[in-house]
Amino acid sequence: MNIHLQQDRTSSRSWFKGCSIAICWLAAMALSTLAGSVPNIILIMTDDQGYQDLGCYGSPNIQTPHLDQLAKEGMRFTDFYSGNSVCSPSRAALLTGCYPTRVHIPGVLFPKDTTGLHPNEITLAEMLKSAGYATTCIGKWHLGHHPDFLPTRQGFDHYFGIPYSNDMTIDQSAPLAEKVLWREGMTREKMLAEKPRKNWVPLMRDEEVVEYPCDQATLTQRYTQEAVSFIQAHQEKPFFLYLPHTMPHIPLAATPSFRGRSKGGFYGDTIEELDAGVGQILEALKRWKLEEKTLVIYTSDNGPWNLKNGHGGSAIPLRGYKFQTYEGGMRVPCIMRWPGVIPEGATCSEIIASIDLLPTLAGLAKVDLPHDRVIDGVDVFSMMRGQRVVPPRDHYFYYRGRKLEAMRKGPWKLRLAKEVELYHLGRDLSETTNLAEQELERVRSMQEAMGAFDKALRGSARPAGSL
Which of 368, 393, 418 is the C-terminal boundary of a domain? Predict the structure, then answer.
């Protein structure tokens, strides 16, 4: 009996030891697989979507079940910042990993402009392409519409979308495809002869206009179809899908099946159609067994318009809107999912920004950052994995045009616009109580830090591209 008991105990110890070895081996294999894997990357960015405008961020009227599920299966970021509070600079920041003033894209580009993101800038797409990724840009570009500045010259294999904002016009010198879909009675001759009309914008494929004026009501749907087709065509190799949606920038547009559906009005209709598109993309990943191989990121380029006609979004509880350096102008929703790597149902409240995506994704793709230029972003992969480590940054700078207008350091935010404003975001997220008079030393210290950083940035700034 005692012998049997001893044998049983020995057997039990051996079994537990075996399990422990197996668990350690599986953990080691998982880490090894992670270390050796190169994920597909899908980066979805909406245009002028407010901080609150998703169910998982508290929207009372807009239904976003697919994005809410994405948050449940991944991580929701509460303190994620755009590179700027308007379109072109925020996109320059995302694709270069730099504050937009550093790469001389401080403001919005228009069809009359002859400048764009400099071809010598090393974009996220170029870095991933060097690692063997297939790359495509589907949606709004807005970093220069002339051929030298288009996505196909900045690391993307293909492009399909509107080259700038949908409330602009056509540049009549734009290259036209051999077969253009002319709409609204337009012809080649009329396009060249007539004064360009506001909100009539071109749809491009690669470097040529293929439709004019673009049917904006079907844009979200067509972008989604293009994205799904790209995923299907590139199942066997790593891919980078950059999907900067046109909506919900004004003029708002949606397909008939989504018009009038949302309790959030026309604006809500566009968001709910975007959510449905995300659902189709996630279903495609599931269909082709790519979920665990793919990092999905969803965010917005800046805060919402301040519109009272139901065509603008909400940044509640944040103060401010697009064009401003209050939190509502630059703090945006962000969700990331990578099954088995990013913990499910997690929330991250560290200071993270779109400029951090380039160094982070380059690290995942095993690409070295360039050593001949300043990159402002930092690798935040440890934050994405939910690891309890010292955050890579405790500060962030808010530029408005060429002016450095605000700085966040920990929970404190200093804003230098019409007056000196100091807020404690941890206690006053809505920026209602100005503490500048009570915290003079803190104001002085942060002002000095802002001045030193701005001087250094200007000393190493790089030129924009110009024709």
Answer: 393
Q: How many other C-beta atoms can be found within 10 angstroms of the C-beta atom of residue 9?
A: 10
Which token pair is 114?
Answer: 């002859």
DSSP 184: T
Supply the CATH number for residue 150's domain.
3.40.720.10
- List, for residues 122-175, the tens digit of each pLDDT value: 999 999 999 999 999 999 999 999 999 999 999 999 999 999 999 999 999 999
DSSP state of 320: -
| Same-domain pairing of 225 and 254 | yes
- Using only the alpha carbons of the chain, give its radius of gyration: 24
Calculate mean pLDDT across residues 230-254. Answer: 98
User: Rounded distance, CA 394 to CA 378, Å?
Assistant: 11
Is pTM beyond 0.70? Reply is yes
User: Among the three residues 350, 370, 393, which one is the final residue of a domain in this structure?
Assistant: 393
Q: What confidence tier does 351 reach under pLDDT thresholds 50, 70, 90? A: very high
End-to-end CA distance of the chain: 92
Specify if 17 maps to a domain: no
227 and 306 fall within a common domain? yes
Residue 98 located in a structural domain = yes
What confidence tens digit (pLDDT) does each residue in 202-212 have? 999 999 999 99
Nearest to 171 by CA among 208, 139, 205: 208
| CA–CA distances in Å: residue 52 to residues 44, 57, 61, 314, 319 | 17, 5, 10, 6, 12
* Residues forming the active site: 87, 142
434 and 287 within one domain: no
Q: Are residues 357 and 412 in the same domain?
A: no
Please compute the mean of the pLDDT values over residues 451-455 and round it to a whole number: 98
Burial class (CB in 10 A: 0-12, 13-18, 19+), 236: exposed
* Beta-sheet strands, E only, within 40-154: 40-46, 75-77, 80-81, 115-116, 134-138
**Rounded distance, CA 233 to CA 256, Å?**
29
Specify the CATH number for the domain of residue 429: 3.30.1120.10
Into how many domains does the chain fold?
2
pLDDT of 36 above 90: no
Output helix, strand, coil percentages for the chain, rounded to the nearest 5. Answer: 35, 20, 45
pLDDT in the model for residue 388:
81
Angle at 351 between CA 350 and CA 352, to 5 degrees: 105
Residue with tokens 């673009």: 214
Locus of tokens 């239904």: 63
Same domain for 225 and 339, yes or no, is yes
- Do 85 and 329 touch, CB atoms closer than 8 A? yes
Residue with tokens 């318009």: 305
Q: Is residue 180 part of a domain?
A: no
Q: Which domain holds residue 443?
A: 399-466
| CA–CA separation, 106 and 100 (whole Å) | 6
